[in-house]
Amino acid sequence: MTFSSLIGQPQAVELLRQAVKSNRVAPAYLFVGADGVGRSLAARCFMELLFTDAHDNTDVVRTKLQKDNHPDVLWVQPTYQYQGQRLTAAEAAAKGLKRKAPPVIRLEQIREITEFLSRPPLEAPRHVVVVEQAETMAEAAANALLKTLEEPGQATLILIAPSPESILPTLVSRCQRIPFYRLDTATMAEILTRTGHQEILQHPAVLSIAGGSPGEAIAAYQQLQAIPPELLQAVTKVPQNYRQALELARDIDKALDTEAQLWLVDYLQQSYWLRWHQPQMIKLLEQARKSLLCYAQPRLVWECTFIQLCQVASPGTRASIQ
């Protein structure tokens, strides 16, 4: 029952179960696959299986893991540096901080892993260290982690990354690879329904953005709900004239930060393609994404994009959505 909450990843479950059953747990694992398909959940299930002993303490172990207060677990996430503090993406969002660069795994965090592993486990037979988004490690941090992987002691390390190519080959060579796959439509529907997110199934563009990842579908739907309804209704229409294009660009720049605008590009690409199947519209939006990533003035980016959309959209296209 330990892996009952992990749906759609039978190969990963079997590999991890057999490792414990045969008492051949590797010192390091690399969980590879898209965001939101169950890699972090699998890590928690695996720890539960590793830590459960013959004294029927499954509930105690599960509770500690759920509350992130197990003394033999260290969960490492990418962080921002802010006023001398390291903040995860969730902590930065809670403080209302808007950062242009993405969070990263820092050298100091790798040193904390080394210090954590220098003492013996307190309750479990081994330490477990989980490094989320391992692909965000700079070379210095990755090289420091390599030394730990070579001599982990009484520990198992789990690196979570989108692909083996996204991290240093020397790290990959020291890990047992556990693959995670994007899910089919039926499994997606089952997970979203089971977790109370069945309303997402009514939004084809959101599902298209997710591409078989329940986690990405939930995150995309939450982002969709954060956009003001009036703006969302306006932006899914092709402007009929240049004035509408300029007004819409102004409203987007005023209401959304850069991160939300980048997500909006993804949403409009999927939405426009599902409606009209015009490659030129998708190319214009892709150019808008590149400009936003280069820190161009957002309002100007959207003004140019919508004006060009006015020019490429046929009268029939504009009429079909009005």
From TrEMBL:
Any one Gene Ontology molecular-function term assigned to this protein's record: DNA-directed DNA polymerase activity
InterPro entries for this protein: DNA_pol_HolB (IPR004622), DNA_Rep/Repair_Clamp_Loader (IPR050238), P-loop_NTPase (IPR027417)
NCBIfam families for this protein: holB, PRK07399.1
Annotated Pfam families: DNA_pol3_delta2
Entry superkingdom: Bacteria
Any one Gene Ontology BP term: DNA-templated DNA replication
Name of this protein: DNA polymerase III subunit delta
Gene3D superfamilies in alphabetical order: P-loop containing nucleotide triphosphate hydrolases (3.40.50.300)
